[in-house]
Structure formats: structure tokens, C-alpha cells
Amino acid sequence: MDLREEINSFILDLLVEGVETKNMRLAKHYLYDSKGFNESQAMRVIGGIKSDIPNSRLGKCKFMLALVRMFCAGEIKDYNVIDGLNKSLKYAASVAHIDEYDNNLNGLSAYDFIKRFSGVVSNGLENDKQEVSSDEYVRNSEYDIIRINSFEESEEYGEYVDWCVTYDKNMYNSYTKGGSGVFYFCLRDGFEDEEAVEGDGCPLDSYGLSMVAVSVNSDGSCNTITCRWNHANGGNDNIMDTKQLSQLLGVNFYDVFKPLTPEEIEAKKREVLYEVEEELCSYMGYETPEDCGCDKREYDPEYGDKKKRDAYVYLSDAVDGCVLIDSNWNLLCNEIFDRINAREGDVMSVFRGNDMNFIDIDGRLLSNEWFIQVHNEFKFGIGLVKKEGKWNAMRKDGTYLFDEWYDGIDLRGKYGSYPELLLINNKLFMSCDLDGRFRYDRWYSYSTELNDYNLVVKFDGDNFYTLVDKFSHKVKSDCKINSLRGRYQRNIYLVELIDGNFGLVTENGNVYDYNTKKLLYPAKK
């Protein structure tokens, strides 16, 4: 490289570094503002995102702002979301799409972003298989390809490389999605004696290619390919694509780097669950599992005093899942969930990948259907569920409160004496009681409290507000209100009537002329 090339390369590096620094600054300041983090705390979050979602580094970390926003919103909640984001970012950061999105991914939620690229991701895997299979390969006998079946097996190579998965069990679990993914190590003859010297083509030089780590997703797609330099000297978790690796090793990637079978995944997850056995026994005050007869179940102290509750959950950093048990350590449900939320009444929200449901303390799932979003309001006897972009309310027996599904449902007044459901459809509203009975015979576009006893409601099709009793929801007066002007005295409100006069609305619903104090519209009995 001559002097001019060196100068151009140096300038390019500065420009690239400047872009990445700007993107990281946006992400850090979001954490400063939304969470009150200091720089050290913010960088720990960003570092975790970089590790868990390797493709977050693409485009010079262009979309890091969006990812920390999703993190703050609680959307990056399990390995399935992490995997979906990682796969989708590969395409969002490509030349074909990167200019379509700003640093915040145009404000998309994690779910919507993953859904937008789901078809591309699926087609991309099939297209890549065809592309890799279009070549013939001659096996490179210098390499051994070793399937890594556990963190302990990975740890054995820690003296030769600084991959985090060889010394940090949590990182190993993260890259393997808690047991659903698998690692392969590609080891060239003599890798043990290879010196860490930068050579031609670094990071894909002799040292870099002497050890290559490959992680594979449960669907058989490639998750990461990392050379021996790891993230030093320009290395990253996408240092080669599947075809380049196939050419290096002389094998078809998809014929050799096989995903785990469903049976292996289930066994792996249960194996990880059993790793907390000693912690369980210690917490329960026993020395061995046989003493407590716990049958290797899990318990979560956060769910309260075990002597006073009927159902328990355990969730550990080492566990990719939760189980539900009773006080005698009997399994209440045979399914392992990604997360089980705190109880409302006798019902809990459960999560399985991107899907959600409800379960009661007897271990019974309330619905055979799974939903994209749920709100547990079973303290009031119902749960709110969303599927295909529409909402409904569910009873404890799994039936729906409404025949129709709506754009939105909200439980209002749950901290007061009169909780009610607010339905939203086509930008109009309807109030109803917790049994699903509509308060009005028409939908409305606006409603607000006028005083402690009265509401004003603008029904669909009207160009005026109607005075309504706050508790019975019956029309209180024949007056037609044009606009609200403000509180006149306690429980007396000043309004402009549709005829241009001003009136005073009292707490009993009478409407008086503002100037003469003459009764204009008596309250209906």
C-alpha cells in the first residue's frame, strides 16, 4: 500500500468511526433520558445488545437507538425476539433496505419489525440453501468440525481463544438461545500452536482462520460465524457468510452444520432446568433433592411466602423457561414457558416465544388459542387479548365477552369504585360494564366528566355535546352544548349552548341561564 492509499484508508476509517460514534451517542442519550442511566450503565446495556444481537453492529450500529428503545419498553423479552431481531436486522441493514429506515427503525415495535421481515427471512434461508448447493465442494482435510454440546465442552477451548462463549456460561446460553441453538468449532490442524500474528487479509488471515466458531439456529439458519480474532482487528460475528465458509471447509454448510432436532432441544432445555437443583434444595432448607422430594422442580422466592400460596414459579438466569408447581412440588402444567407474570386474582400471564396466554393456579391454560398481546385484569374477572390486530375480553372459562373484535379495549377506573371497559373502533368509543353491556345506544367521539355527577358526551353524528348522568349513563337533560368553558364553582360548570347562550350546569343536572339564573333545562327524572 503506497502513502496515498494509506492516507485514504485512514480518512475512511475516521469517517466510519464518526458514523458509528454518532449512532452510539444517540443510543446512549436515549438511555440517559428514559432510564436516568449514567454512561457506564448505558454501555453495559449496549454491550449486552451487541452480544445478544450480533447484527446490531451492522450499518455501523445504525439501529442501536431502536434496539435500546425496544429494550426500555420491555419488548426484548426472550430468545425468540432476540433471534427474530437478529435475523431481520441482517436485511434491514442491507443495501436494499438500509436507507428506508432511520436510526429508530421508523418507530416500529420489535414485533412489527420482525413481522415486516418474516417473509424475507424465510425466503432468504431457502435462497441461501440453493446458492450454497449450486457449488460442488472438495473436503478440506486440514479442518476438524466439532459439534459443541454444552458450555463445558466449549470451555475446554478457552485457553486458545477469547470467545466469550468459552468462559461465560450466560453468553453461551445467549448465543445458543438457552438450548435451542448449537455451536460448531472448526479447528485447523495445529491451531494450538498458531501464533497471534496479524497477516495478509486480517482478520481472515492464517491466525484468524485457524479457529472458526459457528452457531446455528433451531431452523437451520446460520446465527453467527466468528474467526479466531473474535471482534479484534476488524473481526465480528458475521465475518463470513455460509458460502464463504463452505468454500473454506470444502463442505455444503447446510449438510454439515445441522440444527438440533426437536427432541434434542427439549432435552437441552430440561437439562438447563435441572442445573438449578442445588439452588432449589438450598432455598427450601434441604441438603439433597431426595430429602425434599422436589423432583427437580423450580421455585421463585419473588412470588411470596411458600406457606401461603398455592402456585409457585422459579426463574433463573441459567434457565430458559419457567415451570408452575404447587406447594408439594407437583408439576401443575407440563409445559415450560419463557416467562410467567405475577398473579391477578388466581390467573397469571404466560409467554411462549412471541405468543401469550393465561393460566390459572391449577395449571389450566384459559384458552386453546395463543395471542400476540394480553393484559391481565382478572382481579376484575377478565383478561384483555389481542390477535390479528384486534382486541377482545376473555372470561375465566375462556369464552369471549364480545362477539365482535375491536381496535382497542381499555379497563378504566380500576382504582376507583366504578371500573368499566372502554371499546375503541374506527376512532369511536363505547363504554360498557364488566359483563359487556353497552352503556349507550350510540358510539361517541368524545366524553369527559363535567362534575362529580355528570358527563358530557358527543355521540357519533351529533355536532353538540349531550349531558349524561355519570352513574346511570342516561341522558340527563335536553340541552345541547356547543362548548365547555370551565368550572364556575364547585360542581357547577359553565357551558356555551348550541343557541349561543351561556348556561350553568349544576350537580343535579339542571341547566340555568348564566345571566338571569333562570332554569332553562330541568334535569330528567
Q: What would your notes on this structure say?
A:
By secondary structure, this protein is α+β, with helices and mostly antiparallel strands. The protein folds into 4 domains: 3-133, no CATH class; 143-262, no CATH class; 337-429, no CATH class; 446-521, Thrombin, subunit H (Beta Barrel), CATH 2.40.10. Helices cover 28% and strands 23% of the residues. The protein is built from 13 helices and 23 strands. The strands form 6 sheets. The protein has an 8-stranded antiparallel β-sheet, with no helix packed on it. Residues 9-17, 273-309 and 315-319 have low confidence and may be disordered.
Quick recap of the structure?
This protein has helices spanning 3-35, 39-52, 58-61, 64-72, 79-92, 110-133, 151-155, 169-175, 242-249, 253-256, 262-274, 277-284, 289-292, and strands at 143-148, 182-188, 211-216, 222-227, 312-313, 324-325, 339-340, 347-352, 355-360, 373-377, 382-387, 390-394, 408-412, 420-425, 428-432, 444-449, 454-459, 465-469, 475-489, 492-497, 502-505, 511-513, 519-521.
